[in-house]
Design goal:
By secondary structure, this protein is of the alpha/beta class. The protein has 2 domains: about 160 residues, Isopropylmalate Dehydrogenase (3-Layer(aba) Sandwich), CATH 3.40.718; about 160 residues, Isopropylmalate Dehydrogenase. Helices cover about 50% and strands about 15% of the residues. It has an 11-stranded mixed sheet with strand order 3-2-1-4-11-10-5-6-9-7-8, sandwiched between helices. Helix 1 links the parallel strand 1 and strand 2. Helix 1 crosses helix 13, helix 7 crosses helix 8 and helix 7 packs across helix 14.
């Protein structure tokens, strides 16, 4: 049985949606959910659930009186709100009462709180958030998507190692191709820190490092890991999500505007079944925080109950893999970085 703590107070969709996702996830075999938040409010929502549903669910509630809002400045909130749902859940993780922590809340606050409570791995100066994105060659790993900015060359190397460990243990690929996101493939392109990072990755990773990759290669290039800083990664990720939604909406508008649209729509629904399978990242329901001493996962702030359930299930799966432990073992065997 894997026990996952959930910050139910952080979601933009509200407590009701978060509790719904927790209840659904806790009905899964071998998953126990610990809902962390204002106990009275959680219990009030649960009173409306049928007993037959609650009977199948495996969960506990741990009280936390404070909430770190999406609008809170992360560092000051982490320092000031000691009894927030994020901080209380991280205490449970640190003390071994849960195996993983999932939050759909304030990303910056979760990252900073995790570093403060759990600490960083040896040799790691900055953590990274890793996510999975679809491409014409299958799923690939992209990091950092929002944890750290102002990187040094060695941080890019560490992130590349994080990505390699993720690909090998989650995507199950063993000949890993690693690229550094830049404005061009040429060696001289990009700011000085990226040029130095490129040389370091080439020296330390050898043939696994394919060099600089441009933005289009995220989706069209044959590369398994794409490394960047958290600011750039977050902008790219959110822009890609928005572009996907916009294209889908435009396609729907065009189809429904024609009298024969229902016929075309029906045919497309059949034809796109395979497409959905190749591009559906719901199995990877959260970004994974790598470089800290614990299993921490962050979902989208606007996560629905379905997405929260998916994030918890994903967290339970990866908490058994213990990626940070594997990374720590690799780093301990390396010399000076």
């Amino acid at each position: 049985m894997v026990s996952i703590g959930v910050d139910v107070m952080g979601s933009e969709k509200g407590l009701k949606e978060a509790v719904k996702g927790c209840v659904k996830a806790s009905q899964k075999r071998d998953i126990h959910v610990v809902m962390v938040g204002r106990e009275d409010e959680i219990k009030e929502i649960l009173r409306k659930y049928p007993k037959r549903i609650l009977k199948k669910a495996k969960f506990d509630i741990v009280n936390a009186t404070e909430v770190i809002e999406m609008t809170d400045e992360p560092f000051s909130a982490a320092r000031r709100k000691k009894d927030s749902s994020i901080m209380v859940a991280l205490d449970l993780l640190k003390n071994g009462e849960i195996q993983g922590f999932f939050s759909p809340g304030n990303t910056g606050a979760v990252v900073i709180s995790s570093v403060l409570k759990l600490g960083r791995l040896d040799k790691v100066s900055k953590p990274a958030l890793v996510t999975v994105i679809p491409s014409i060659y299958g799923f690939r790993t992209f990091l950092d998507v929002g944890a750290s900015i102002d990187l040094e060359p060695r941080d890019y190397l560490l992130f590349a190692i994080f990505g390699k460990v993720f690909v090998e243990n989650v995507l199950r690929k063993y000949k890993v191709r690693i690229g550094l996101l830049n404005i061009g493939e040429e060696d001289y392109k990009g700011p000085e820190v990226l040029r130095k990072a490129r040389e370091l990755l080439k020296e330390k990773l050898g043939e696994e490092f394919v060099g600089n990759v441009e933005g289009y290669q995220l989706f069209l290039g044959n590369v398994d890991v794409v490394v960047t800083d958290g600011f750039t990664g977050n902008v790219v990720l959110k822009s890609s999500e928005a572009a996907s939604k916009a294209l889908s909406s435009l396609m729907k508008q065009e189809i429904t505007a024609k009298w024969y649209g229902f016929i075309v729509g029906g045919l497309m629904k059949i034809a796109l079944k395979g497409f959905r399978k190749k591009t559906d990242v719901s199995e990877y329901g959260a970004a994974t925080l790598l470089g800290v001493n614990g299993n921490v996962f962050i979902g989208h702030g606007a996560s629905s109950a379905k997405s929260i359930k998916s994030g918890i299930v994903y967290a339970a799966k990866l908490s058994q893999v213990n990626l940070n432990q594997k990374i720590d073992k690799i780093l301990s065997g390396m010399g000076e970085i």
